[in-house]
Specification:
globular, eight-stranded mixed β-sheet, alpha/beta, 17 helices, about 575 residues
């Protein structure tokens, strides 16, 4: 709609939709105003007393700006963007800032274009950060590599906001030329960080390099230090990374300014979203931890819009876009109604055509022949072990006595499992082998082609037969998840799009996810943490302390491989 027409509509109070009798949350003055909100097409033209033919009676419910997920990987939901939208919008999320680095690690720029095509006409506002680290580090093999020259054409796309999470902090603070080229390309635009436990002079150097946000804080002191550098902190509640209630309590107790704190999910399974909520889950926890409700709303909306330079998003005021949410209260954040960026009530039954995608996005699982000998881990009596931390993505390095067979190979026992990461993009035959403690699987194996961030095939188990069976199940499925036990594949979830997503109906995917989780738990997997997501992060060599890539066991704190 032309600006002149909107000006005229605002002067005359001519609305196409009026939300009557609402308690409107004003993020500028941090007050709640009982009023009507007038909308003309997709834009708010006034807050006060209005009427028109098309009205919604809020009945005193709380009207807030649409919630924003400030950092999310749609691919980690395992469903395509239209299906993902159907899961999150009923929880009040109307805008997401997506980093498509999962599919970029598999299919390069073709993967980024695929996500752009999928989201162009959705009622959900989908904005993007350009993947910065493909691969995440030089210590693994991904399906593609992105250089600054590959990214440059995307600067002209209106929904590309800036540079995605800069995970390779070693190259960043070390001044590696390829990383500096990417940072310079996006100079003046938002640049997301990824710097778990980075502190002191290293944090200063990282901040000067360009990253201005971080979503990896695991304690309050880390939050405070990063805020002091001018960074914006994204408080994440995903399926694996939890335990942030203590951080929020300390924020409330110390009356820490929240203007530079916002919310994200990063990686959260749709089954968990269905059960717990999306960004409204973050807001609910914030209020429960003592943060005032209006500040929690700002953290869920306006703060993110301001951080990423989103014009006309994140507030209810004249000239702002009409995406809004009616909540029953500002404590539980139960949604009554969602207004989309098109200025109309969200319709969950609306369907969208599937885009035609490049061939690189499919047929992404290319494995050599894998045998029991491929999984043989020659070992010593004492071995380095990846020790998982419950409800956290970080791991600890431990030295453990292990059981060996007569030939000197590791035998899973006493809670220690065999872990393998197999290069799956180009059938190179690269296989990293290690030992993990914390998945607690007995008499079986779990395998996945979702393995951040290079998305090679990762499999963990206590016997080779089930590990091989799970691997072959994923070869046949074109990627996905599989749980095997007793020589039988108990459950599999095929993800044929880049080995990461499926366009199957959401309910079907949810049923398969539940079946996978039930099968994993039947093998003894820790119920406190989603074992599927926990497994998928064991191959990511940018989160301390120890990981496994297709090249071997890796010490993240020293940025070097561990010989054994």
């Amino acid at each position: 709609m032309r600006q002149q027409d909107l000006i005229r509509a605002a002067l005359k109070g001519e609305a196409t939709l009026v939300i009557k009798n609402a308690n409107v949350v004003n993020v500028f003055t941090e007050e709640i105003i009982h009023a009507d909100v007038a909308i003309c097409e997709d834009t708010v033209i006034g807050v006060g007393e209005y009427s028109c033919e098309n009205e919604i009676d809020a009945g005193g419910a709380f009207l807030t700006p649409g919630f924003i997920d400030a950092h999310v990987h749609i691919e980690s939901s395992m469903v395509t963007p239209p299906s993902f939208m159907k899961v999150i919008m009923p929880h009040g999320t109307t805008t997401i800032i997506a980093d498509p680095h999962e599919i970029a690690n598999v299919a390069g720029t073709a993967g980024v274009r695929a996500m752009y095509k999928y989201t162009d006409a959705l009622p959900l506002r989908v904005l993007f950060m350009m993947p910065s680290c493909v691969p995440a580090t030089p210590f693994e093999h991904s399906g593609a590599t992105l250089f600054a020259e590959d990214m440059e054409p995307f600067l002209r796309k209106s929904r590309i906001l800036g540079l995605g999470e800069v995970m390779d902090y070693v190259s960043t603070i070390g001044g590696a030329q390829q990383m500096l080229d990417k940072l310079r390309l996006f100079d003046g635009k938002p640049i997301d960080g990824h710097a778990p436990l980075l502190s002191g002079r290293e944090l200063n150097a990282y901040r000067i390099a360009g990253p201005s946000t971080d979503h990896e804080c695991s304690n309050f002191e880390e939050v405070k230090e990063k805020l002091r550098t001018g960074m914006r902190v994204l408080i994440r509640i995903g399926s694996a990374a939890k335990g942030i209630d203590e951080i929020l309590r300390r924020v409330a107790e110390e009356n820490l300014p929240t203007e530079n704190i916002m919310f994200c999910t990063d990686d959260k399974h749709i089954e968990t979203i269905n059960r717990e909520g999306h960004i409204n889950c973050n807001a609910r926890l914030a209020v429960a931890c003592g943060i005032p409700p209006v500040k929690a709303v700002k953290m869920a909306s306006y703060n993110a819009a301001r951080a990423y330079g989103l014009k006309g998003v994140g507030a209810i005021a004249p000239g702002y876009k009409a995406d809004m949410v009616l909540f029953e209260d500002l404590k539980e954040f139960k949604v009554k109604k969602v207004i989309t960026r098109f200025g109309r009530v969200y319709d969950p039954n609306e369907e969208f055509p599937k885009p035609i995608l490049a061939p690189e996005v499919y047929d992404s699982v290319n494995l050599p022949l894998i045998t029991a000998d491929s999984l043989r881990l020659a070992a010593k009596e004492t071995m380095p072990v990846i020790e998982m931390v419950p409800e956290q993505l970080i791991t600890k390095r431990a030295e453990r006595k292990v059981k060996l067979d007569e030939g000197g190979a590791f035998i899973p026992a006493d809670g220690l499992l065999k872990l393998a990461v197999i290069e799956r993009h180009h059938a190179t035959g690269n296989i990293g082998l290690g030992i993990v403690d914390g998945l607690n699987i007995k008499n079986g194996a779990i395998a996945s082609t979702v393995a951040h961030d290079s998305h090679n095939l990762v499999v963990a188990g206590d016997n080779d037969r089930d590990m091989l069976l799970a691997i072959e199940a994923l070869r046949e499925s074109g990627g996905g998840f599989a749980v095997a036990s007793g020589g039988i594949v108990l459950v599999r979830l095929p993800l044929p799009i880049a080995g990461l997503m499926t366009d199957a109906p959401v309910e079907e995917v949810l049923q398969q996810q539940r079946a996978l989780l039930d099968a994993a738990k039947s093998l003894g997997a820790d119920e406190r943490t989603d074992p599927l997501i926990a497994l998928s992060f064991l191959a990511l060599p940018v989160i301390p302390e120890i990981r496994l890539t297709d090249e071997g066991l890796f010490d993240v704190t020293k940025m070097e491989f561990i010989p054994y």
